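Help wanted!
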Amino acid sequence: MFRRNRKRRRPRMNPRHELAVLLPIRPLKANASNADRKFDHLPVARLRAVHLLWLFLIFSASALAAGAQTGAVKPSIAKTILAWTPLLLKGFGFNILISFMSMAIGTVIGSVLGVLQISLLPPVRLASRFLTQFFRNSPWLVLLFYCMFMLPFEITIGELRIPFPDWIKAVIGLSLPVMANVAEIVRGAVNSIPSGQWEASESLAFTRRQQIWLIIMPQCYKRMLPPWMNLYAILTMATVLASIVGVEEVMTLAGQVLAAEGRPELLVPIYSFVLVWFFAYCYPIARWTIRLERKFALNI
Amino acid sequence: MDAFFDWFRWLYDETGINLTFIYDAFDRARLVNGFWTTIWLSAVCLVLSVIIGVVGAWLQGSRLKWTRRIVQGYIQFFRNTPPLVQLYFFYFALGSLMPKVQNDWGGYEPMLGNFAWAVISLSFFAGSFNVEIFRSGIEAVPTSTIEAAESLGYTRLKAYIHIVLPLAFRVCLPALNNNLVNLVKTTTLAFAIAVPEMLYVSSQIWSDNVNVREMMTFLLIAYVGLVGVLVWAMNRWERAIKIPGYGSQ
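Answered by r_m:
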């Protein structure tokens, strides 16, 4: 999922040995009717129409089924979950905060790394490519562990003490893979620009810097946006990893709620509750990404 | 071999770099086991997720609206929720509902252990991506090819197995490889439910020997190496079975 957007080039049709039986891969749905396609332009409407309803049904069914087993003394499952919802929501908000910060840090450093990857100096290019591949190929959880254990809990510069709480370390740990993936998105986008653009701007006497900033990059933003949003959704889903290393986010809180209640019949409802929250947040992003992809797609 | 181990013992005494997993036989055995568990977990999930992908893509081309909808719901649900929460959901929530079976010592234990749940959860997670990938490959096969197969008397299933899938597989192999590499990276999540894979074993070693720094560095290098080998092998395979004249380069 993290490497999906590596190369998005048009399939080259070489007339000499072109295999006529295959069509180019298109993101369009083959079996969608016209009405379905119309619905796709309204991601929210489609979401409400089918998927969220289903989720909600499954969730309430599981809550009801579990509720039927409970005795009369304890409050019902739905009531218990409702009582804990503010706490869980706070935890979920913390997840979103972590994802925003990691994404910001990762995007800034990753863009620089991505531009360095197309540098004309071989040492710079090779070093940045190695860095990108290294962080892309290592598992997110291992990088998170690495930052958790390797970063000091505070940095002292002269008199100034900068504390490093756990969640800041988690932000840094998550921003490392984001950085590498953003760098790859930037490189992929630059590579997908036809070489004619480089040559034309060169023949118009643009310097290298002007070429990148005035000609190439403005064409890249559109191509980078869908994979970047995709990466954001992936990052949001990865923020729960921080619970393994002890940051107080929604999964940690869910575990604490379960421990505090001590009722095994709550297990399914609470976990599906968290799942539904993430789905409700990530699914619209995914729909929007697909829409943008279609909008920006070149017509082959 | 002993001299080799002794050298690392000497290294620890001289520099404080404590690589217990090399010179200590117990830690070495643990780590090797962890390594094989990671490989085994990845391999099983890989096979199952590809099967899920193939079957799911076939079901998605079904004529029945509800079959398509259910497959679509499965894909969207598993793609848009965190794999870790899925794992917790499977292991803690569904695992607690499973009936208990008697083991050899007369005690009762859950029917499926943590390894089995990790396999189920990760396969479904990776499988949801594979369905989409196979679907994109199947769409690249033109209807005229399928019609030709139909006119030769193939049923829908037979045409899928003999005509569509082999072509689609070659088209979607790059995307499939990316997903499988991600699957290998995602197996680290099994740490959360105490499957003794490499990360879990390393955490045990560093809590016994307080050599967090060395273990973390080793882990990072080991995973990058493992994934690097996989990427290299997959790329070679990709090049070998690529359809000539199709796709970039």
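OP: Thanks! One thing I noticed: The longest strand of chain B covers residues 100-102.
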